Task: inverse folding
């Protein structure tokens, strides 16, 4: 009998510890002591992976918000891609991507200008077998207004969004030039999603991340890029200056004047020997 009572006491103690059963018979939430005792809140426990993701998001967010050279637009620390109110695509990368100009070594002519940009990545991806990297679902590139990067060839004007023209390319990415910056939006999305519609939704949700873009909200328009100066009409080249021929000197002689001896000697043929 004593053995049975001892086993029952152990079982009761285990159940009390599991459900937070107090000594007076009241059941309390786990981690909270009964009335009259100190309350202990349980801290959330993050896995090493979740902790590293949170650290990376904080680092990338700090980079985007503190960047001081030109306006940076973003979707915040996360993006709600399916409209359910939950940011299912976290910010997974923010970095400056600068590339030097390229020159033809034979002619020393510049073939590609220097490129300055900031890239932002959103969402996660799975690295395929025998690969070392994968493309995140959303990649946003921001270029300064004075960039010399030529507009990619093959773009077609798609629509006007937030006061500026939007160009679409065959691979689905969008190109938006404004007076203050240029944005390129590329998608590597899940199947069944219209890339163009999703890219336009992303463009509509961009807002300022740093102090240079403080006035840009989701509801504000972009400033259109000013048109290039008009090309002057070609004109005929100026006519060459007219040159008046210099007349040869003419010797005049009044009637009865004696002809100079040197002039006569020059005019007469030389005597034959």
Result:
């Amino acid at each position: 009998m004593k053995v049975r009572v001892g086993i029952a006491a152990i079982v009761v103690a285990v159940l009390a510890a599991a459900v937070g059963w107090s000594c007076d018979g009241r059941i309390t939430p786990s981690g909270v002591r009964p009335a009259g005792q100190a309350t202990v809140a349980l801290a959330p426990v993050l896995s090493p992976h979740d902790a590293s993701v949170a650290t990376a998001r904080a680092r990338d967010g700090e980079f985007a918000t503190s960047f001081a050279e030109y306006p940076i637009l973003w979707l915040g620390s996360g993006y709600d891609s399916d409209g359910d109110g939950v940011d299912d695509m976290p910010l997974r990368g923010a970095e400056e991507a600068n590339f030097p100009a390229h020159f033809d070594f034979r002619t020393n002519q510049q073939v590609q200008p220097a490129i300055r940009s900031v890239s932002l990545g959103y969402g996660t991806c799975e690295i395929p077998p025998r690969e070392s990297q994968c493309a995140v679902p959303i990649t946003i590139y921001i270029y300064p207004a004075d960039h010399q990067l030529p507009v990619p060839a093959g773009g077609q004007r798609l629509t006007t969004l937030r006061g500026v023209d939007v160009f679409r390319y065959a691979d689905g990415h969008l190109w938006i030039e404004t007076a203050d910056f240029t944005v390129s939006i590329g998608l590597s999305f899940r199947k069944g999603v219209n890339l163009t519609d999703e890219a336009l939704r992303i463009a509509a949700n961009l807002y300022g991340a740093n102090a240079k873009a403080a006035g840009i909200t989701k509801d504000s328009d972009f400033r259109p890029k000013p048109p290039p100066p008009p090309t002057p009409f070609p004109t005929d080249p100026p006519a060459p200056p007219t040159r008046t021929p210099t007349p040869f000197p003419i010797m005049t002689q009044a009637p009865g004047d004696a002809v100079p001896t040197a002039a006569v000697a020059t005019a007469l043929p030389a005597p034959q020997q």
User: Anything to note?
Assistant: The radius of gyration is 42 Å.
